[in-house]
Design goal:
heterodimer; A: 283 residues; 15 helices; globular; B: 392 residues; Rossmann fold; OB fold (Dihydrolipoamide Acetyltransferase, E2P); 2 domains; six-stranded mixed β-sheet; 10 helices; elongated; disordered C terminus
Chain lengths: 283, 392
C-alpha cells in the first residue's frame, strides 16, 4: 500500500473520524467568541442585536467603530502601558530567573535542594492567594497606583526558575567547566553560555510570560486606579462601564485591538521557536 | 611550560573516598598519562588539578606556584574534554577565540556595541582573529571557522576543542579521555596527532584515559590508578615489563597476563599446575605465590619437563600476525593463554595436548596480597642462563 493510500485509510478509520470531529468541535468552540468579536467590531449598532447572524455586516461600520475605540478611550495609552509592563516584567524575570536557575542546576551549595523545594511550592501557589499580602506590602512601601505596583509581584517567577533549571540541568557539566577554564565568571557563564544555548526555553518562557501578563486583569484591578497607568484589559473594562454603555461596536473594536498584538507576536515568535528547536535538535 | 607537583591529594564524595593521598610530580614538558578503569578517580584528579573541584586535603603547585586557592582561569591550564564541551551557539571561530577574548579584552571592551567604539579594541580583536586563524590552520580546520559545532563531525569537533585549548599557550594541557568518543580508526589517527602536537608545542601534558594502547603509545610516563590510589608511575615499558603490583600487571596487556597459583617447594623450585618451574625466589618453602606470565613469555616446547606446562587446547584465536592459544592446564581450573607465532597455526587443533615452555626470567612473582616479589632475577640468573640455552 502506498503511503498516501495508507494515510487516507488512517484518516477514514472510525477512531480518526471521531478524533477529528472532537478536535474540530473544540477548536470551533474556542474560536467562535473571537470570530463573533471581530464580526461585531465592524457592524453598526442596529445590526448587532439583529436576531439573524451573519459574519459580514450589511453596512460596513468598521471605520467608525475603530475610530471611536481609539479616540473615546485612551486605548493607545493602555496598549503602551501593556507593552511597557510586559517588557519590564519579562526583562526583570529573565534577570532574576536565569542566575537562580543556574545556581540551582549547576552549583553545589548547602540548602540547594531545600531552595528548589521552595521554588516548587511557589509554583503550586495560585497568584490570587498572594494578592492581599502583596496589596498590603505595596501599601507599606508606598508603590500602589504606580507602574512598580504592576510589575513587582511578578519579578520572581517560580515557573521561570523551574523551566530554566530543568533546561540548564540537561546541559553537560563539561561546558560549564570549559567556560570556567576559558576565563568566564559565573555571571558570564549564565549570560554568554547558558541563556543563548537555552534559547528555545527562553522563547517558550517569553510567550508564557507575555501572554499571561498582557491578559492579566485581577492584579491590575487591585493595584492601580489611575486610568493613565492601566493595562489594556483593565482599560477595556473601565471603557465598557463608563464610556460605551450599550455601544458594543467600539467595545469589540477595542477588544480586537487589544488581542491583535498578542496574535502577531505569537505568530512571529512561533517561527523562531521552531527554528530554535530545530537548531537544538541538530546537535 | 611548567612542572606540576601533586602532593597528598585527598578527595571524598560524601563518605566515599575518591582520591586517597595521591602524590605525583610531573616534569616540565612531560607527557604523563593517568591510566585506570572508569571510576578509579583519574578524571577527578584532573579536575582537582584544573581547579574545577576542590581537594579535601593536599596541595598542588604548577610551575613552582601553589595554586590551591586559585580559580581555574588563574591556573594557566587548558583542558580538552571527552564530550568536547564546545559552546553550541557559537561558531568555531568564536569558540576558539573565547579564551583570548576573555583574557585580552576588558569587560567594557567585550560589550556588544559600546565595546567596538573603544580605542585599542580593533587592534586586539584583529590580533585575536589572526591567532585563531593560525591555530585553526595548524589543526587543519581553517575552512570550518564559520560553522557551528552542530555541523561538524566528531573528529572535527575534537580538533576545535584542541584548538580552543592550545590557542592561549597554557602552561599545562589537561586531556580527559579526548579520544573515547571517536571511532577506532579516527582514534588511532588522532592519537598520532596528539603525539605530534606534544612534540611541536613542548608543553606539559596530563592525559587521562582508560585505553592502555593510548597510554602506552603517547606517554613519557604512565601513572596507573585504581580505587583512588596511584599503584605505579613509570615509563610505559616498565609498566608492562616490570609492574610493581599484581593489579597493574593484570590491567596492562592484551590478552591479559596469565596468573597461576604456585607453591614454593624449596629454594629455586616452584610447584605450579602439575609441574615444577625452576625459578629462584626470595620466599620461604611452603609459601603460596602468584606467578604472572605474559602470553608472549610462553613458547612451544616439544616435550614436557621442567619449566614447561602441559594443557589441552580449548580455543585458538587467529590474529593475523600471532595466534592466541587458550589452554586448560592440568590442576584445578587454571586457564592459560599463549601468544605464538602464526606459522604454528596448522599444527595446533582444539583438544590437542600441548607443552609450552616458560622463560623463567620473564615470570613475575607476586605475594598473595598482590605485591611484587622482587629479587628472584638476581638470585636465579645463574640457574636461568643454562636453562634458556637448554630450551633452545
Amino acid at each position: 500500500m502506498s503511503t498516501r493510500a495508507l494515510r487516507a485509510c488512517q484518516l477514514l478509520s472510525p477512531a480518526a473520524v471521531f478524533r477529528h470531529t472532537v478536535l474540530l468541535a473544540t477548536g470551533a468552540l474556542i474560536l467562535v467568541p473571537f470570530v463573533w468579536m471581530v464580526s461585531l467590531s465592524i457592524k453598526p449598532p442596529g445590526e448587532i442585536f439583529r436576531t439573524s447572524f451573519s459574519f459580514w455586516p450589511v453596512q460596513f461600520y468598521g471605520v467608525e467603530n475603530y475610530t471611536k475605540a481609539v479616540t473615546q478611550a485612551p486605548l493607545p495609552r493602555y496598549l503602551g502601558n501593556g507593552v511597557m509592563i510586559c517588557a519590564l516584567i519579562l526583562a526583570l524575570q529573565m534577570l532574576v530567573c536565569a542566575p537562580c536557575a543556574y545556581a540551582l542546576a549547576k552549583l553545589r551549595f548547602a540548602g540547594r535542594d531545600t531552595l528548589f523545594g521552595l521554588v516548587l511550592i511557589g509554583l503550586l501557589l495560585p497568584h490570587q492567594v498572594l494578592s492581599l499580602p502583596l496589596f498590603i506590602l505595596g501599601y507599606q512601601i508606598g508603590i500602589l497606583n504606580t507602574y512598580a505596583a504592576l510589575v513587582f509581584p511578578y519579578v520572581v517567577s517560580p515557573f521561570g526558575i523551574f523551566l530554566f533549571r530543568q533546561f540548564f540541568k540537561s546541559m553537560p557539566d563539561d561546558v560549564v567547566h570549559a567556560a570556567r577554564l576559558d576565563g568566564l565568571s559565573e555571571t558570564a557563564i549564565v549570560w554568554k553560555i547558558m541563556v543563548p544555548t537555552a534559547l528555545p526555553a527562553v522563547i517558550a518562557f517569553a510567550i508564557f510570560s507575555i501572554v499571561s501578563h498582557w491578559n492579566d486583569l485581577f492584579w491590575p484591578l487591585i493595584a492601580v486606579h489611575d486610568q493613565s497607568l492601566m493595562p489594556p484589559t483593565l482599560g477595556i473594562m473601565v471603557f465598557k462601564s463608563e464610556e460605551a454603555g450599550t455601544d458594543y461596536g467600539p467595545l469589540m473594536a477595542a477588544a480586537t485591538l487589544v488581542v491583535l498584538p498578542l496574535i502577531v507576536a505569537f505568530l512571529a515568535a512561533q517561527r523562531w521557536f521552531i527554528e530554535g528547536l530545530a537548531e537544538g535538535a541538530i546537535k | 611550560m611548567a612542572s606540576v607537583s601533586i602532593d597528598g591529594i585527598v578527595k571524598n564524595y560524601g563518605p566515599t573516598p575518591v582520591l586517597r593521598d595521591v602524590s605525583l610530580s610531573i616534569a616540565d614538558g612531560e607527557f604523563l598519562t593517568l591510566l585506570g578503569p572508569s571510576g578509579c578517580g583519574k578524571s577527578t584528579l584532573l579536575r582537582v588539578l584544573a581547579g574545577l573541584e576542590m581537594q579535601d586535603a593536599g596541595s598542588i603547585s604548577i610551575g613552582g606556584r601553589v595554586v590551591d586557592g586559585l580559580r581555574p582561569k588563574r591556573r594557566d591550564v587548558a583542558m580538552v574534554f571527552q564530550s568536547y564541551a564546545l559552546y553550541p551557539h557559537m561558531t568555531v571561530a568564536a569558540n576558539i577565540a573565547l579564551p583570548l577574548r576573555m583574557r585580552r579584552l576588558t569587560a567594557i571592551q567585550r560589550l556588544p556595541l559600546v565595546g567596538r567604539l573603544l580605542p585599542g579594541r580593533a587592534r586586539i580583536a584583529a590580533e585575536i582573529d589572526m591567532e585563531v586563524t593560525r591555530t585553526a590552520k595548524s589543526l587543519d580546520i581553517g575552512h570550518l571557522l564559520p560553522r557551528k559545532p552542530g555541523q561538524l563531525s566528531g573528529g572535527q569537533r575534537q580538533r576545535v576543542a584542541v584548538g580552543r585549548a592550545m590557542v592561549r599557550h597554557p602552561a599545562v594541557f589537561l586531556m580527559d579521555e579526548p579520544l573515547s568518543n571517536l571511532d577506532s580508526k579516527l582514534r588511532v589517527q588522532m592519537r598520532a596527532e596528539i603525539k605530534e602536537l606534544h612534540q611541536r608545542l613542548g608543553g606539559t601534558f596530563v592525559y587521562v584515559t582508560h585505553d592502555q594502547a593510548e597510554a602506552m603509545t603517547l606517554s613519557d610516563r604512565v601513572a596507573v590508578m585504581l580505587d583512588g590510589e596511584l599503584l605505579q608511575v613509570a615509563p610505559p615499558q616498565d609498566i608492562y615489563g616490570d609492574p610493581s603490583d599484581r593489579r597493574v600487571a593484570e590491567f596492562i596487556g592484551s590478552p591479559k597476563i596469565n596468573i597461576l597459583d604456585g607453591v614454593m617447594r624449596e629454594r629455586g623450585l616452584i610447584d605450579v599446575a602439575g609441574s615444577t618451574l625452576k625459578i629462584d625466589a626470595a620466599a620461604l618453602p611452603g609459601m603460596h605465590l602468584s606467578l604472572g606470565i605474559r602470553p608472549e613469555a610462553l613458547h612451544l616446547a616439544d616435550q614436557g619437563g621442567q619449566s614447561t606446562l602441559t594443557g589441552s587446547v580449548r580455543m585458538i584465536e587467529h590474529m593475523g600476525s600471532d595466534l592466541f592459544v587458550h589452554l586448560d592446564l592440568a590442576g584445578p581450573d587454571q586457564p592459560l593463554v599463549a601468544r605464538l607465532p602464526a606459522e604454528y597455526g596448522p599444527r595446533i587443533t582444539p583438544g590437542q595436548t600441548l607443552h609450552v615452555g616458560i622463560r623463567p626470567e620473564r615470570v613475575l612473582l607476586f605475594t598473595p596480597d598482590g605485591r611484587r616479589l622482587r629479587g628472584q632475577v638476581e638470585l636465579s640468573r645463574a640457574s636461568v642462563m643454562p636453562l634458556r640455552e637448554a630450551a633452545r
